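How a chain folds remains the central question behind the approach discussed here. The record that follows shows the chain in one-letter code together with its fold in token form:
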Amino acid sequence: MILSTNILQSARAAAVAAVFACIGSVSAQLNLGVPEELKGVDIVEKLDAQLPLDARFIDDGGEQVSLRDYFKGDKPVLLQIGYNRCPMLCSLVLNGTFDGLKGVDWTPGDQFEIVSVSIDPAETATLAKAKKEAYLADFDRPGASKGVHFLTGTEIMSKSVADAVGFGYTRQPDGEYAHAAAIFLVKPDGKVSRYMYGAKFDPKDLRMALLEASQGRIGNTLDRFILWCHVYDPDARGYVLQARKVMSLGGLLTVLVLAGGLTAFWRVEFSRRKKPVAELHAAANSRSNE
């Protein structure tokens, strides 16, 4: 009986993941005839919305914290919302996040922060700590523990964060939660920068999303140049080259090459024409000296 229940829960979680991987943020605007238990399970994008930084939680060390504690200085925040006992979907999202970050040479706590907020008020700091340690053991990035935070708290506090980013979820009769699959990139001032959907994230996209959320405060000049040449495409679920900017850059390079070539030509031509005049002056001076 327990095995059957777990199979059903996993199947339902997989179904929810598949549905929201396809419909993303538009599900809130469309009446898709979803089952009653899934109504309200969606993501309504609220770009540049302000997170409730005064919301209070218990961190994975058992200490009282506020969301504001993770928005200091110039570091962007990668925010994940779910719950630690989730039988499938939350783990898939976190797995995809940490797997993608393995390909990014930045470390949580140095260039950015990772904050996971539990929507289940029954979860404890002990469970949050165990979840964090499991992911850090697999992530295996020295120093990352200072930048990874698993938070638990009251329903009011977690819902205030979820509402701020448009993350809709519902509790099911069996006590589990139905929700969508996404992570949120947040600027250092606590405003939403980017939504990334699904449960698998390309390292290149994560790097550019973090750079974008930092507003150019992390990364090097090359990173910022690459980001300038790209734009986030919700349909492709990643960053793609902006043809207009690439063409503009190509045009500028063409102009610079032509200008350089013409300048070199004019210098050679000027030197060539100047040489006979100089020779005539030299000859004239020579005759006058005689």
Q: What stands out?
A: Residues 1-11, 18-31, 249-253 have pLDDT under 50 and may be disordered. Helices lie at 2-23, 89-101, 125-139, 155-165, 203-213, 221-228, 243-289.
